Amino acid sequence: MAAPEASAATGADEDAYDDAVETRDDEAEVEAEVEEEVEEIVVDGAVGAMQRSGELTRELREEAEEEDEASLEEDISREEALSTATEMIKSVANGDEALDAARLGSLLWALSNALLEDLTDRDDLRVPGNSLETFPVELVRDIMANIETLVIALTFEPEDAVTQRSGQKIPAIGSHRVAAAEILAVLLQIGCQDIDERIAKLKLPSDGQFVLVSLVRMFFKYNWSSALHATVIRLILAALVSPHEPLWAPMFEGGEESLQGSLAKSIKEALATKPISTRLGNVGSVIILANALCELEACDDVERASVRTTLQEDPAWRATVEGENNSLAKLNEEQAGGLCGPKPTKSPAFMDSGMGSNVISSQELLRMLQHISLGQ
């Protein structure tokens, strides 16, 4: 009698289990149908709270990722910045990855800032006989070991920028190229012969031009980039202080595309542009460089005698700077004052408050050249 009862109990349990499974399957089907209906409502209907919540969550997540990346860049060491930047430049140049101009710019600026930090308030940088191998700043040696790769960043053109006032597209320089130029300017301001000689030999793979020549042409091409203008001014004037002629001589070659030829053309165009407010954005920087070259002509040092000869034999340059009421004099007069009286002037000193932090005035350039000529 016990066996049939156990069998009946077992059968009842199996029936209960089957009923539970069927019930669970039915509930799962209902849940699936409800989810499909909700999905259809969210996708096909008006934007609901659930969809807005999802988008907000995604936006917050993306912002958090960007903040994490920015924080990572702030905390990155100079060694990591250098290695990451060089690897990125190689990958972009080889076509292995697309240009991330903002990321590369951040890395190069981190490198530039670290360089300035290491070079500020040092008394052992301009010691006679300082060579690159024994240079007292390790970061300078590391950067110079990778300088051929770093300058390739100057060839990476970002997308065009859109002006705020007119909405027109203009060529963009990109923060990565300004940062690369800044690194070069700081290196030239050190005054190390080995560094000057290495930079003098650098050429860009895109056009085969010397790096300094390419930067001079960028100065005039990207005429609304004040950051680039300030950096290139310091770079040019720091190069002219060097006694190594191959560093700066190519800038004065090329006729109309030379430094003095481009300055003469820009000055002529600026005077012909009325009203003044419609002039190109690099006019002020053009005046600084033109005045510096005029004062360079007035020097009598032996090292830059060839530059003076080139300037004196350039007819376009002579027409710009010679005569009582020459073109450069007219622009200088405009800068000196107007209806409200003379404009305030400031003559920043070279390397006065940290290398690379100031634009060298043309007057300071004259004093620097005279200082070198006297062998002091």
Any chance you could write out the topology, listing elements then pairs?
Blueprint: H1 2-44, H2 49-75, H3 78-94, H4 101-119, H5 138-145, H6 147-150, E1 161-162, E2 169-170, H7 175-190, H8 193-200, H9 211-221, H10 226-241, H11 245-248, H12 259-272, H13 283-298, H14 305-312, H15 315-321, H16 327-336, E3 337-338, E4 341-342, H17 362-373
Antiparallel strand pairs: 1-2, 3-4
Description:
The protein has 376 residues and is an all-alpha fold. The protein has one domain. The chain is 64% helix and 2% strand. The chain is built from 17 helices and four strands. Strands 1-2 form a two-stranded antiparallel sheet. Strand 3 and strand 4 (341-342) form a beta hairpin. Helix 7 packs parallel to helix 10. It starts with a helix and ends with a helix.
Instruction: Assign an overall shape.
Output: globular
The major beta sheet can be summarized as:
2 strands, antiparallel
Instruction: Count the domains.
Output: 1
Mean pLDDT: 78
Distance between the termini: 123 Å
Order of strands in the sheet with the most strands?
Answer: 1-2
Gyration radius (Cα, Å) is 33 Å
**Which strand-content bin applies to the residues?**
under 5%
Low-confidence stretches: 1-10, 30-59, 68-73, 344-363, 365-376
SS-based class = mainly alpha
Number of helices: 17
* Helical content class: 55-70%
SSE ordering: HHHHHHEEHHHHHHHHHHEEH
Q: Can you count the beta strands?
A: 4
